[in-house]
Amino acid sequence: MDHVTVRFYAELNDFLPRERRQVPITYPLARRTSIKDLIESLGVPHTEVDLLLANGESVGFDYLVQPGDRISVYPVFESLDISPLVRVRPSPLREPRFVLDTHLGKLAGYLRLLGFDTLYRNNYDDATLARISADERRILLTQDRGLLKRSAVTHGYYVRAASPVEQVREVVRRFDLAGLIQPFSRCLRCNGRLRPVPKAAVLERLPPRTRQEYEEFWLCERCDRVYWQGSHYDRLRALIAELVEQAPGALTDLRQRSVPGGEPPG
């Protein structure tokens, strides 16, 4: 039977069994297949791949693998300029927006806290997630590699970290979001934008103590929830500082910016 040799580099090895990491893999070629189907059959979602070489030549996902091919598979490049080669990933989205699978609810809340447009529902099925990602040009965040193998998904990322705090740090680093953080600008419950609102406009909706102690209020443009800088505000600011611990520029910006806070959803 004909064979090809495949080698995965850097963090793409996260998707491989231990015995296949960092070594050339001999793969039996039983039928004509695209290079995309080949790498996904080995466990690596196409959304994680940025560059493919066949026998040293740059190729796209539609390349039909030939017997004897030597295939090299590379992840997203952060600092190396590979512009003369064929990048197989689409260009980055101009505005980073996200949709998250059902297992990443806390990550969704943290991304909203940092001001990022983040869709999440705990009953989205895989087909719905893939459709939303494609139709609304949202980055699909998931811990289901099978979901990222769907052909409709062009912008997706497999979240490696287990804890929500580490997950949001990972996403901020991976998509270079530090300079785009706008804390307290979105509703934690529905993802809507917050806008300043006169106290008089929401006075009848406020608890008696809140009427006396606070003068600045914000309203969600989508669900009409009222926010103010309550007793939780300092705790949330500390949490944001923790979430962006790996992004010093964002921390500086956070200290200097005057932003709205709000009572979190109950």
From TrEMBL:
SUPFAM superfamilies: MoaD/ThiS (SSF54285). It holds the Pfam family Mut7-C. It comes from the Bacteria. Residues 96-239 form the Mut7-C RNAse domain. Residues 1-81 form the Ubiquitin Mut7-C domain. This is Twitching motility protein PilT.
